[in-house]
């Protein structure tokens, strides 16, 4: 299956539209603070986050998602409804990773030209940038969990998923890595585009398996499951007896 012939899932499309609507306010706020955000960027980031071989709580990943911008981060933590939408989105992505059914956003549209699929003006470029943001933030986590036999394969998948963030960067990478003049940038572009859906699933599969191995070797670790749907004013699930907003939320 390629990006060009995939069958859209109407149930997922409806759910993702709900997430996009619920995050409209925070996306607008992030743009005001010179950190442009879109649904595709958030989707790419959450995919990278949920695929990682480690369990990370929202107190850590929410600030990273929004570039450590204190104003935007605090606005999310203070707005119970928006925060819950973001947690629900995280749960949705985690369910896909654990169910081996990860996909690109249902509403993601490809451009009519090759250049139309690169950079922040394109849906695919936005998704790739979100993925890069998560990958760079979690770089040390992957290094610690990685085994030699998987390292090269993982690097290739990372490059493929990051490829569409910037055309100039990808063209330079092609010149550096592809020694044969017989393989053009256009051919690489077409191959990567065709293989993206399977690359997405394979990347997620690697992270999940590495995490399962880590759990098997250290039973004290918490299983990598979706964050509980806890409201800011609910009792904290840690058992402290305090409200979530006064305890483990931050």
Please give the structural blueprint.
Blueprint: H1 10-22, H2 24-32, H3 39-51, H4 58-65, H5 70-78, H6 80-98, H7 123-137, H8 139-145, H9 148-162, H10 167-177, H11 185-217
Helix pairs in contact: 3-6, 3-7, 3-11, 9-11
- Give the rounded overall mean pLDDT: 85
Number of helices: 11
H/E element string?
A: HHHHHHHHHHH
- The total of beta strands comes to 0
The Rg value, from CA coordinates, equals 19 Å
Largest sheet: none
Strand composition percent = under 5%
What would you call the shape? Answer: globular
| Main structural class | mainly alpha
Unreliable sequence segments: 223-229
Compute the separation of the termini in Å: 42 Å
Estimate the helix proportion, in percent: 55-70%
What are the key terms here?
250 residues, mainly alpha
Explain what the structure shows.
The protein is an all-alpha fold and 250 residues long. It is built from eleven helices and no strands. Helix 9 (148-162) packs across helix 11 (185-217). The longest helix is centred in the last third of the chain and has 33 residues, at 185-217. It is globular and about 60 Å long.
């Amino acid at each position: 299956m390629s990006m060009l012939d995939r069958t859209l899932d109407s149930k997922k499309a409806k759910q993702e539209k709900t997430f996009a609507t619920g995050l409209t306010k925070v996306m607008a706020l992030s743009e005001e603070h010179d950190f442009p955000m879109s649904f595709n960027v958030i989707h790419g980031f959450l995919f990278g986050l949920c695929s990682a071989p480690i369990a990370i709580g929202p107190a850590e990943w929410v600030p990273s998602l929004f570039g450590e911008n204190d104003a935007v981060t605090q606005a999310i933590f203070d707005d119970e409804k928006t925060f819950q939408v973001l947690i629900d989105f995280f749960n949705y992505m985690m369910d896909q990773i654990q169910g081996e059914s990860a996909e690109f956003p249902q509403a993601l549209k490809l451009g009519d030209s090759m250049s139309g699929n690169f950079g922040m003006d394109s849906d695919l470029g936005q998704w790739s940038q979100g993925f890069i943001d998560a990958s760079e933030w979690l770089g040390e986590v992957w290094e610690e969990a990685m085994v030699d036999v998987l390292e090269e394969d993982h690097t290739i998948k990372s490059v493929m998923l990051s490829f569409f963030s910037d055309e100039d960067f990808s063209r330079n990478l092609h010149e550096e890595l592809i020694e044969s003049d017989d393989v053009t940038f256009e051919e690489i572009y077409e191959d990567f585009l065709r293989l993206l859906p399977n690359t997405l699933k394979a990347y997620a599969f690697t992270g999940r398996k590495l995490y399962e191995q880590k759990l098997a070797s250290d039973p004290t670790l918490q299983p990598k499951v979706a964050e509980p749907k806890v409201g800011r004013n609910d009792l904290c699930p840690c058992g402290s007896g305090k409200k979530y907003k006064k305890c483990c939320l931050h």
